[in-house]
Records
---
Amino acid sequence: KQEVTQIPAALSVPEGENLVLNCSFTDSAIYNLQWFRQDPGKGLTSLLLIQSSQREQTSGRLNASLDKSSGRSTLYIAASQPGDSATYLCAVSNTGNQFYFGTGTSLTVIP
Amino acid sequence: KAGVTQTPRYLIKTRGQQVTLSCSPISGHRSVSWYQQTPGQGLQFLFEYFSETQRNKGNFPGRFSGRQFSNSRSEMNVSTLELGDSALYLCASSIQDRTFGEQYFGPGTRLTVT
């Protein structure tokens, strides 16, 4: 069974810092990996989707990379802002038509 | 284009009752997945429907069931509610014919069982 781990569980940074969130998975036979953010009590907002054939995706201040062979993905956030404060989740899909989620990284950006 | 909608947003039930949650996917999306989110277990996959057929099911007891209608709207039913069923229930839709297409989530239904 696929297991997804996110480190760190919580992160607090001052505004303006660049930061990296980590996601690792045990089964490298994935179809894609998706990063989400979740605000307290809310649903998930899709940030970036990386297909298994891709190495990275970028959207604005966000950049996600994927290394299937090592079972790792990173989400890079440039010039962090207080509005980036949320829980960030990564999810991978493989055979079986379902996503497996990590437990998330809770990010706080201090003004 | 409207996003994924879920109704109701909040629900309070007592143990032993049953509950039905509804999810309307983004127009044109035919795949709908359901997830349960709790502080202790995180996000766990319940099941996925495509074109009215359940294609995959997670590791949940038979009290959890679902269905999908011809317009792709989906319902999830939980019978004989237990305290441990209190959770945020999220549904996600995808335009592709596989759930490993990009997933778009609704706001969730917060279920409290007393």
---
Amino acid sequence: DTEVTQTPKHLVMGMTNKKSLKCEQHMGHRAMYWYKQKAKKPPELMFVYSYEKLSINESVPSRFSPECPNSSLLNLHLHALQPEDSALYLCASSQRTGTLNEKLFFGSGTQLSVL
Amino acid sequence: ILNVEQSPQSLHVQEGDSTNFTCSFPSSNFYALHWYRWETAKSPEALFVMTLNGDEKKKGRISATLNTKEGYSYLYIKGSQPEDSATYLCAFNPNFGNEKLTFGTGTRLTIIP
């Protein structure tokens, strides 16, 4: 199984809602990533988890709260988002941490719209 | 902020023709350069990870070269097929131990049957 599964594929939420994005991989990868991509822009790193511990937070606003409950699962909890947070949220994983000379495996993303 | 640029932004190529596009990155520090293919409504898929100056990688009709001293990589597609239509992204990592990849904006390739 070389898949990274993201759910839901689409999400529409109001600014007062709380929702969560879910990402799962069963490849035994020890690094997991959240990226955000706005239209016509490159994917931008948000968070990196290494061995289930948060190792990078790219100064992401606290209305985004990541969680890695176990080595296969990565969540992104959303609360009080703004319309400008509407974007495609991509999850990725890689086998090892601390080095990026090996490929990332991506999910197909969650398209988020904040109304 | 690292500047990773890809050119052209978009490209239309006749089926059967060969094509290439460029990824430019800072040449001051280099650790790894990634290429991904991203078809609409699918996941980005890794094509190559390149780490050595002068590296050449090949996967079927697709190949890539790397020049770390001048800060560029070329992706070549030989005999384009409709299934090659996708956005091709490069991503750059300047340092060992750095878990952050900086992506370019991509080259959107459309193959005309």
